[in-house]
């Protein structure tokens, strides 16, 4: 399959085209982010977010631009947003009083009300996950509840790593749609 053909097929929601694009460009985007963040997990997370956003917005892609360049631009923007969020959360935790520099120690332990809300949210999330097709439920469970790596999931379900990545992307997208359409 040629890249332009895959892009056109992806615009029609062709899963094989998504797989092809992910297989073709994963290493490039991942390598780019790994050089920037110097952390494999962060690079992987940003790369997943990049493909997720790119696949969500594939209809906006214009063939005037190189697809690889388009992906890298999305990836850069995601990384910049994450850095900004981290800076904001760090600066909010540091205060200066009476000319003494110190960091407020926040009590992050959940209150009984927080625990109840978390349990309720978890119950709602589990209910929404059950609305997914079984193979999507399985990869969500393995990745987020059993905290397996992509390689471990690949071994567990006997599928290539890139299929696992695409399946997770798709599962997360479908789950987000279910959550947004569910009454609160």
TrEMBL record:
NCBIfam families attached to this UniProt entry: sigma70-ECF
Natural source organism: Bizionia myxarmorum
Keywords from UniProt, A to Z, are: Sigma factor, Transcription, Transcription regulation
Q: PANTHER family of this UniProt entry?
A: RNA POLYMERASE ECF-TYPE SIGMA FACTO, RNA POLYMERASE SIGMA FACTOR
Coiled-coil ranges from the UniProt annotation: none
What InterPro entries does the annotation carry? RNA_pol_sigma-70-like, RNA_pol_sigma-70_dom, RNA_pol_sigma70_r2, RNA_pol_sigma70_r4_t2, RNA_pol_sigma_r2, RNA_pol_sigma_r3/r4-like, WH-like_DNA-bd_sf
Sequence ranges assigned to domain RNA polymerase sigma factor 70 region 4 type in this UniProt record:
127-175
Protein family per UniProt: Belongs to the sigma-70 factor family. ECF subfamily.
- Residue ranges annotated for the RNA polymerase sigma-70 region domain, each copy included: 28-87
- Protein name as it appears in the record: Sigma-70 family RNA polymerase sigma factor
User: Which biological processes are named by the entry's GO terms?
Assistant: DNA-templated transcription initiation
The question of whether Transcription is a record keyword is answered with yes
Pfam families under this entry?
Sigma70_r2 (PF04542), Sigma70_r4_2 (PF08281)
What Gene Ontology molecular function terms does this protein carry?
DNA binding; sigma factor activity
């Amino acid at each position: 399959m040629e890249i332009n053909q895959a892009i056109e097929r992806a615009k029609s929601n062709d899963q094989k085209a998504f797989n092809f694009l992910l297989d073709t460009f994963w290493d490039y985007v991942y390598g780019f982010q790994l050089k920037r963040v110097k952390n494999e997990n962060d690079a992987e997370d940003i790369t997943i977010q990049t493909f997720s956003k790119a696949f969500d917005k594939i209809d906006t892609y214009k063939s005037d631009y190189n697809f690889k360049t388009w992906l890298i631009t999305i990836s850069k923007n995601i990384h910049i947003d994450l850095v900004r969020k981290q800076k904001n959360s760090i600066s909010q935790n540091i205060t200066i009083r009476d000319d003494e520099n110190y960091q407020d120690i926040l009590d992050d332990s959940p209150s009984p009300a927080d625990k109840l809300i978390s349990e309720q949210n978890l119950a709602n999330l589990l209910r929404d996950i059950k609305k997914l097709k079984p193979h999507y439920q399985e990869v969500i469970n393995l990745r987020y509840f059993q905290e397996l790596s992509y390689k471990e999931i690949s071994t567990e379900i006997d599928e290539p790593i890139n299929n696992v990545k695409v399946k997770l992307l798709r599962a997360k997208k479908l789950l987000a749609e279910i959550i947004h359409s569910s009454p609160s």
